[in-house]
């Protein structure tokens, strides 16, 4: 039976334009989706936009636009960003779609049927920026008198009739979930933080609002709209066709991986499983949260004017250099800083030199000395078999690493092999063999071509466009690019296209 894998990104708020933080989570999810597809799994990959709530309503008002028209504009921009970053999503869900509204209301009904919802009044702190309620004990007062949540978001006192979810009743079941399924969340630091939050005791959660109207009506009580997080979290089910349990895509539930930023880990590891437990719906397998990007050491914010559109970086550095940098720079799960020096260094050293030059040297020697055709596999020396063995270990090694979301380690594994290839080409010096032993030269070039094929095949999820180009130059046909195909050597004699550099060096405009 084909293995299935369902992976999601957060759905992004449409109160502003997409930036590098959004692109980051989407690229990471895309790598996982592509990796599983290439390993032979049937994959469903979901992204989309979160369009309701007070924050979006206020942003639309500030722009003087109709709420739906306002949401339409940014939703289109998020989709364009995903396309520009080659995010290979299978569906793009928008919470203002009817299919989503039906699903959110059906989940609400299920939770209500279980007795976990009651009507009361909410009185307490609310942070618009986080779309989140906070307890008195979490609020601090700044010297200027503004009160802020632990995230730094200003809070306001809210008082209104509200439906509540009996979150307090789920404390033990949540703790049991974390204990019995350590894979339920990652990385480890998050696990400790969330467990201790839940151990401190959970307050019931306000899940409807009455002071504004931009949301999904609560079934049976249209004066209330759903709290935007109740609405938003159900997107992962609406895209599959819930509440129609026989919908064909429902075979993908439970989700294998919700990838989120660490800012929203709590919503996904506390509220979401509790809603699902109440509704009697199976829980997702893993919620993994990525770390936070700063820009040249500063928090990214509109007021600082340092918000980076990933497309601007792509225009300057190329798509795959940006995708590579985002994942390579810091072990996935940790925080990192986007600075130009680091981006330039990684592009020039690791892409242009380590990998780009290796491919260019190998392929141009083949073009010049082997009639532009792939040499036959010949008699191998120990040095050759040693290198090829390292390459052949990559699929298994990386499968383990991607399974643990060790995306950066997986890249490092490939780079070890690339460095081994560079040492091999220097040691074997095929350019010198050209004059002394052409048979051996062909063997060496074939070993390098095979190693490069393995490397490029395994790097496809990270850098799809440039690895497509590299595999084409190596004579690898489109139906020979799955991981499994690596077990079958390419026939010698295939004619190869003229080699072209895949990774240009970055040259600063002023230095040109
Ligand atoms: O929270 N560094 O949407 P959102 C790393 N609609 N990742 C970042 C980042 C940064 N500086 N900034 C944003 C919401 N992100 C809700 C989600 S899901 C059911 C609802 C990424 O538009 C990160 O993944 O505020 C974060 O969790 C997400 O964008 C927040 O996007």
From TrEMBL:
<comment type="subunit">
    <text>Monomer.</text>
</comment>
<keyword id="KW-0436">Ligase</keyword>
<keyword id="KW-0648">Protein biosynthesis</keyword>
<dbReference type="InterPro" id="IPR015413">
    <property type="entry name" value="Methionyl/Leucyl_tRNA_Synth"/>
</dbReference>
<feature type="short sequence motif" description="'HIGH' region">
    <location>
        <begin position="12"/>
        <end position="22"/>
    </location>
</feature>
<dbReference type="GO" id="GO:0005524">
    <property type="term" value="F:ATP binding"/>
</dbReference>
<dbReference type="InterPro" id="IPR033911">
    <property type="entry name" value="MetRS_core"/>
</dbReference>
<feature type="domain" description="Methionyl-tRNA synthetase anticodon-binding">
    <location>
        <begin position="374"/>
        <end position="504"/>
    </location>
</feature>
<keyword id="KW-0030">Aminoacyl-tRNA synthetase</keyword>
<dbReference type="GO" id="GO:0005737">
    <property type="term" value="C:cytoplasm"/>
</dbReference>
<dbReference type="InterPro" id="IPR009080">
    <property type="entry name" value="tRNAsynth_Ia_anticodon-bd"/>
</dbReference>
<dbReference type="Pfam" id="PF19303">
    <property type="entry name" value="Anticodon_3"/>
</dbReference>
<dbReference type="InterPro" id="IPR014758">
    <property type="entry name" value="Met-tRNA_synth"/>
</dbReference>
<comment type="similarity">
    <text>Belongs to the class-I aminoacyl-tRNA synthetase family. MetG type 2B subfamily.</text>
</comment>
<dbReference type="GO" id="GO:0006431">
    <property type="term" value="P:methionyl-tRNA aminoacylation"/>
</dbReference>
<feature type="domain" description="Methionyl/Leucyl tRNA synthetase">
    <location>
        <begin position="5"/>
        <end position="363"/>
    </location>
</feature>
<dbReference type="InterPro" id="IPR041872">
    <property type="entry name" value="Anticodon_Met"/>
</dbReference>
<comment type="function">
    <text>Is required not only for elongation of protein synthesis but also for the initiation of all mRNA translation through initiator tRNA(fMet) aminoacylation.</text>
</comment>
<dbReference type="InterPro" id="IPR023457">
    <property type="entry name" value="Met-tRNA_synth_2"/>
</dbReference>
<protein>
    <recommendedName>
        <fullName>Methionine--tRNA ligase</fullName>
        <ecNumber>6.1.1.10</ecNumber>
    </recommendedName>
</protein>
<keyword id="KW-0963">Cytoplasm</keyword>
<feature type="short sequence motif" description="'KMSKS' region">
    <location>
        <begin position="299"/>
        <end position="303"/>
    </location>
</feature>
<dbReference type="Pfam" id="PF09334">
    <property type="entry name" value="tRNA-synt_1g"/>
</dbReference>
<keyword id="KW-0067">ATP-binding</keyword>
<dbReference type="GO" id="GO:0004825">
    <property type="term" value="F:methionine-tRNA ligase activity"/>
</dbReference>
<dbReference type="InterPro" id="IPR014729">
    <property type="entry name" value="Rossmann-like_a/b/a_fold"/>
</dbReference>
<keyword id="KW-0547">Nucleotide-binding</keyword>
């Amino acid at each position: 039976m084909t293995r299935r894998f369902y992976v999601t990104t957060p759905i992004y708020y449409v109160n502003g334009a997409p930036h590098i933080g959004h692109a980051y989570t989407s690229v990471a999810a895309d790598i996982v989706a592509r990796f599983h597809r290439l390993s032979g799994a049937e994959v469903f990959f979901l992204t989309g936009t979160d369009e309701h709530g007070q924050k979006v309503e206020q942003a639309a008002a500030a722009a003087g636009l109709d709420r739906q028209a306002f949401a339409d504009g940014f939703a289109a921009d998020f989709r364009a960003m995903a396309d520009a970053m080659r995010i290979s999503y299978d569906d793009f869900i928008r919470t203002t779609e009817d299919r989503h509204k039906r699903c959110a209301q059906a989940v609400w009904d299920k939770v209500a049927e279980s007795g976990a919802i009651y009507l009361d009044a909410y009185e307490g702190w609310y942070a618009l920026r986080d779309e989140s309620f906070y307890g008195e004990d979490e609020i601090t007062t700044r010297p200027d008198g503004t009160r802020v949540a632990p995230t730094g978001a200003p809070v306001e006192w809210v008082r209104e009739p509200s439906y509540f979810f009996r979150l307090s009743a789920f404390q033990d079941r949540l703790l049991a979930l974390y204990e019995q399924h350590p894979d339920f969340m990652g990385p480890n630091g998050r696990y400790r933080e969330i467990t201790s939050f839940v151990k401190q005791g959970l307050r019931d959660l306000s899940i409807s609002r009455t002071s504004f109207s931009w949301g999904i009506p609560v079934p049976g009580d249209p004066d209330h709209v759903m709290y935007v997080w109740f609405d938003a979290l159900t997107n992962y089910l609406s895209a599959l066709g819930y509440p129609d349990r026989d919908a064909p895509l429902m075979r993908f539930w439970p989700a294998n991986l919700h990838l989120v930023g660490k800012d929203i880990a709590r919503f996904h590891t506390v509220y979401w499983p509790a809603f699902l437990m109440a509704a009697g719906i199976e829980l997702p397998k893993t919620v993994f949260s990525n770390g936070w990007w700063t820009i040249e050491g500063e928090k990214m914010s509109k007021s600082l004017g340092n918000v980076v559109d990933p497309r601007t970086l792509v225009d300057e550095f190329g798509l795959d250099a940006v995708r590579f940098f985002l994942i390579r720079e810091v072990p996935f799960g940790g925080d990192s800083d986007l600075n130009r020096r680091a981006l330039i260094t990684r592009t020039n050293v690791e892409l242009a030199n380590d990998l780009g030059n290796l491919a260019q040297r190998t392929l141009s020697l083949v073009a010049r000395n082997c009639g532009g055709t792939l040499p036959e596999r010949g008699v191998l020396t120990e040095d050759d078999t040693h290198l090829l063995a390292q390459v052949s270990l990559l699929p298994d090694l990386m499968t383990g690493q991607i399974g643990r979301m060790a995306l950066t380690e997986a890249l490092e594994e490939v780079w070890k092999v690339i460095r081994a290839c560079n040492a091999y080409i220097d040691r074997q010096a095929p350019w010198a063999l050209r004059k002394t032993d052409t048979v051996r030269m062909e063997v060496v070039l074939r070993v390098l071509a095979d190693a490069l094929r393995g490397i490029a095949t395994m790097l496809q999820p990270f850098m799809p466009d440039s690895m497509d180009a590299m595999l084409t130059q190596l004579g690898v046909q489109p139906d020979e690019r799955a991981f499994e195909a690596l077990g079958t050597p390419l026939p010698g004699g295939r004619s190869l296209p003229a080699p072209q550099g895949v990774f240009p060096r970055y040259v600063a405009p002023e230095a040109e």
